[in-house]
Each structure stands twice: as structure tokens, then as C-alpha cells.
UniProtKB/TrEMBL annotation:
Residues 50-246 form the BD-FAE-like domain. The gene is nlhH_1. Its EC number is 3.1.1.1. Residues 1-21 form the signal peptide. InterPro entries: AB_hydrolase_fold (IPR029058), BD-FAE-like_dom (IPR049492), GDXG_lipolytic_enzyme (IPR050300). Keywords: Hydrolase, Signal. One of its GO terms (molecular function) is carboxylesterase activity. This is Carboxylesterase NlhH.
């Protein structure tokens, strides 16, 4: 147990050090904007997006940017400043419009957002985007929609009509930043008509519709990591709403960081430092998740070797040879990926529970000194 605690402590320290260093020494990306691209249309609507593409030799992660406006107003232009910040940090940003109430009532808005996720995955090569790293950022109503992208899948009945070639792509995002988000509607009086322009009925008349529109309804342990920020002086959306979402995530064992500030609803959006802080936190959670996945893969491989040879592998080379010779084993690149990134603090640490293996010192060094390189 002490070994596990020691290695875990070294890992977390290294991850935090890495994230802080990346924020202060981060490479700034130049980017180009592709404006007014039609990504969806119907009989009575046409939806456009702006794509901010960083200049890079490698595919870049995607951030879907979803504007607020109480589901009834607003456009992609509201996300202009935030999109530039994200693009400068290396994200392909897709800032979208979506159908607005009262002309288009719920669930048209989430249908459009889910289509946008599939669209960017289908067109990833055109914008040098990585379809396996698609995240969502939204504020207010946009944060509500972004949160549903993180928590719902095809079994939840919110996909909408999916046509080819988009059906082959998932509409779920891999990480979430949500600000000023209404995560549930317990704070809306049952007889209130406040949201009937969007949801069609009062909560008293149709409580199921309000529950189905609430991200907290869908939180499960397979949801992606999330960072949620909210102003405690917000008089439009009470802070109890994101707090309830954070509690649901904790109960489901989902990594979620809640940032509470003294801001009001509007000021929390305009203070872009909150986005920068949230992005750094999201990247830290993703790095931690990546580390755990590497550890899990490596531990399983070592256990397989032990079952076959009744001993632990003497070196990484011996383990690699054993795996590659198997028909169902990982390829060379997958093994190398699990064995690298010591310098970034994401090393496969893998060894906890099997500290006697020589691979421990080979990969993390004596007392883990390789982790902090």
C-alpha cells in the first residue's frame, strides 16, 4: 500500500507540474478561420458554423463551442473571443449555430449539437482535426447542451434523425467545459411558464420532459471528465444546479471539477480567464485519465506474461517480445505508447502491486525520479 501511495503521489505532483509548465510555456498556434460553413439544413432552417483551424503538422484536438442565449437567441459570433483563445492553444474550434425556440422547441437544439459532433468527425481530415479527441465548451444554454453531449448516448433518445455518412460516428464528446449551466430544473416552479416557450409545457404538466432535458438525469460512470465553472452571484441560474451535477458525477465516480467564483451570470462568461483555467484543469484530468489507461494496459500485459511463464518479465523488451509474438497482442506502436511519456509525467507507473518487477526501475527509475524529467 505504501508503494502505491508513493507512486500515486509522485504521479499527481508530476502531472500538476506538467500542466502548470504547459500553461506558462505553451506554444501559441497561429490559426485561420473558415467562416459560415453550412453543416446542417432542413426544410425551414440552415445551420452554419465557424471553424478556427490551428496551423500544425499534427492533427489537433477539437473543441465544439456552443453559445448561450436561453435557447431562444444568440449566434456563433458570441463565442468569437473564446474560440480564438482555444485556437491559439491548439484546438480546432467549431463554433456553431443551432435551431432556436420558440420556432423550434426542444429537443431540436440537442439534435443539432449532436449532428455537429458527427459532422466534425466526418470532416476531421479537412481541418486537420483528431476525431478521437472531440470536446465541448458551452456557456449558459450552450453549457446545458454541451453537458448533454457528454452524458447522453444513442440509448437515451436524443440523437434525432441521423443520416449517412454520419451514422457511423458517435455524437458523444470526450471531455466537457461548462459555464453557467442549468444542469437540472428543480429551481423552476412546477406551475411556472418560464420555459414553456422552449419545453412546450409547465413542469407540472409534463415533469418527464423537464427530467429528460436535464443533464443530471444521464450521468453514468462511463461519462468523460468535466470542468464546470459558475458564479455564486448568478441570479439567472442558481449555483445549486451545477453543484447537483458535480454530486451526481462524484456518485458515479466521474472526474468533475467544480469552480465557484463570485461572478454573476454575464461576468462569468466575459471573464475569459475562467475558460483558460478550466481548459488547464480539463487537460490535467485528461492526462491523468490517459495515465490510468496506460497503467491498466501494462498491468494486464504483465499479468498475462506472469500466467504464461509463472514469473514477472525481466525487462520491457522481454514483455514486448512476448506480446508481439501473440496473434491478439498489441502492435509495436501501442506498446511503445504505453512505455513512453515519462518526461511529461504520464508514465505508465504500471507497477503498483508488482513492485518487485525489474521493469519498475527501468521505466520510472529509482524512487520514480524519471517521472519528473
Amino acid at each position: 500500500m505504501y508503494f502505491r501511495f508513493l507512486i500515486f503521489s509522485v504521479l499527481i505532483f508530476s502531472l500538476l507540474k506538467t500542466v502548470n509548465a504547459q500553461e506558462t510555456e505553451r506554444v501559441r498556434f497561429k490559426h485561420e478561420k473558415h467562416g459560415a460553413i453550412v453543416f446542417a439544413s432542413g426544410e425551414d432552417y440552415e445551420l452554419k458554423c465557424d471553424i478556427y483551424q490551428p496551423k500544425s503538422d499534427e492533427p489537433r484536438p477539437v473543441m465544439l463551442a456552443i453559445h448561450g442565449g436561453a435557447w431562444t437567441t444568440g449566434t456563433k459570433f458570441a463565442m468569437y473571443r473564446h474560440a480564438r483563445i482555444l485556437a491559439n492553444r491548439g484546438y480546432v474550434v467549431m463554433a456553431i449555430n443551432y435551431r432556436l425556440a420558440p420556432k423550434h422547441k426542444w429537443p431540436a437544439q440537442i439534435h443539432d449539437c449532436k449532428h455537429a459532433v458527427r459532422w466534425i468527425r466526418e470532416h476531421a481530415k479537412e481541418y486537420n482535426a483528431d476525431p478521437d479527441r472531440v470536446y465541448a465548451f458551452g456557456y449558459s444554454a450552450g453549457a446545458h447542451l454541451a453537458s448533454l453531449l457528454a452524458t447522453t448516448d444513442k440509448d437515451d433518445g436524443l440523437e434525432g434523425e441521423v443520416q449517412q455518412p454520419y451514422a457511423k460516428h458517435s455524437s458523444r464528446v470526450d471531455g466537457l467545459i461548462a459555464g453557467g449551466a442549468p444542469m437540472e430544473f428543480s429551481w423552476i416552479d412546477a406551475q411556472s411558464t418560464t420555459l414553456t416557450y422552449w419545453l412546450g409545457e409547465t413542469k407540472a404538466a409534463n415533469p418527464q420532459r423537464y427530467a429528460k432535458a436535464s443533464p443530471v438525469t444521464y450521468v453514468t460512470n462511463d461519462d468523460p471528465v468535466a470542468v464546470v465553472f459558475h458564479g455564486t452571484s448568478d441570479t439567472l441560474v442558481p449555483a445549486t444546479s451545477p453543484e447537483e451535477f458535480a454530486k451526481c458525477c462524484e456518485k458515479a465516480d466521474v472526474e468533475c471539477q467544480l469552480i465557484l467564483t463570485r461572478d454573476g451570470h454575464a461576468s462569468a462568461f466575459t471573464r475569459t480567464s475562467l475558460l483558460i483555467d478550466s481548459l488547464a484543469r480539463l487537460e490535467g484530468l485528461l492526462a491523468k485519465q490517459e495515465c490510468y489507461e496506460r497503467m491498466e494496459r501494462m498491468i494486464n500485459w504483465i499479468e498475462e506474461f506472469k500466467m504464461a511463464h509463472n514469473r514477472l518479465p525481466k525487462s520491457a523488451t522481454e514483455l514486448e517480445t512476448f506480446l508481439i509474438l501473440r496473434d491478439d497482442g498489441p502492435d509495436v506502436s501501442e506498446f511503445a505508447d504505453a512505455m513512453t511519456s515519462n518526461r511529461d509525467g504520464h508514465s505508465f507507473i504500471v507497477r503498483w502491486g508488482i513492485a518487485e518487477s525489474p521493469i519498475v526501475s527501468e521505466s520510472v527509475g529509482i524512487d520514480g525520479e524519471k517521472l519528473s524529467r
